[in-house]
Amino acid sequence: MNVYKIAVIAGDGIGPEVINEGVKVLNKVAELAGDFSFEFTYFPWGCEYYLEHGKMLPDDGMEQLKKFEAVYLGAVGYPGVPDHISLRELLLKIRKQFDQYVNVRPVKLLQGAPCPLKDVTRDQIDMVVIRENSEGEYAGAGDWLFKGKPEEVVLQTGVFSRKGTERIIRYAYELARKTGRTLTSISKANALNYSMVFWDQVFEEVGQEYPDVETHSYLVDAASMFFVKQPERFQIVVTSNLFGDIITDLGAAIAGGMGLAAGANLNPERVYPSMFEPIHGSAPDIAHQGIANPLAALWSASQILDFFGHENWGAKVLDVIEQVMVDKKTLTPDMGGVSSTEEVGNEVVALLSALKTSQV
Ligand SMILES: NC(=O)c1ccc[n+]([C@@H]2O[C@H](COP(=O)([O-])OP(=O)(O)OC[C@H]3O[C@@H](n4cnc5c(N)ncnc54)[C@H](O)[C@@H]3O)[C@@H](O)[C@H]2O)c1
Fold first, then answer.
1. How far apart are the CA of 300 and the centre of ligand 1, in A?
2. pLDDT (tens digit per residue) in 78-133
3. Taking the model in full, what pTM does it have?
4. How many CB atoms lie within 10 A of CB 219?
5. Is 128's C-beta closer than 6 angstroms to any atom of ligand 1?
């Protein structure tokens, strides 16, 4: 019997509310599967912790997390603590120190999910965006010269190492090969004459090893247009940190909105834990009311199941999320329903149990 050890950082605002449902669903899946289980360890880190201790996590926090295979994160950030502190000192610290250089963002329009595009069917939006998660434009390199003077200059340097660029592109090629899907690189070599020329070159070089993978390349501006006009062009997408950040929000917008979007931060070599999170924030405006939509956190739970090799169960959780949206009986207010966070979680658990019973 495999026991998967997961560190839970439920975080702030609606974080704990949606993560509770994710934990409930994962435990249910384990019970139904019968051959694995989860061991969850909770860490009370986040803004409340910061206000009490002056830091987002204890000094040995990263050491504590290292012992786990995965981290399940709700959301961090709350009024009273500057966002750059909550983001940099917890979320980005984990991504960076655990070398979670692959950000996987599924952009898939499930049946029943709200879609702002006209006449788009479910099969037209079904892609996975692989975003570089460790360097690029978010490396934090640069300078601020002559601060406050008329000749003030700021420099924000994009860092593209050969190792960092090759490994993310290779990961995407491997995924495209494994799934038999096309691979599209999104860059901007016409304007970014060092970083993106290099990116395109590496995309081509690595591609020599994958003659079986059909590839496409787009400039990020054209890609943004096609995300809206012809999303069916994209299957597996690979892009840099900044472009990935932006186009995955666009992806979330066309495929059900923030209440549904999930992301995985992977350290593929599994030297360090990988981290799974709904991509929405802590939503202080609706926190503690029990009305947050837990579906994005449940999609993250399905990514956790994939990560541990239980893709069949991951797919079942997605099927059930889809069923909940098609039924429209148990939805939170952001999706036009009147149900609570807990009721949606309970419905997913009930549908999973029914699925199992009907298969027996
Ligand atoms: N990954 C993270 O931890 C993360 C991501 C984004 C923002 N944040 C932090 O969260 C705080 C709030 O940020 P924000 O308001 O810009 O973004 P947000 O995602 O928290 O909220 C934006 C809007 O979407 C709604 N919303 C978000 N998630 C929802 C859900 N599951 N169900 C129903 N409605 C939902 C909110 O009510 C709000 O109106 C800030 O402190 C920010 O730094 C954290």
1. 16
2. 999 999 899 989 998 999 999 999 999 999 999 888 899 988 888 999 999 999 99
3. 0.94
4. 16
5. no
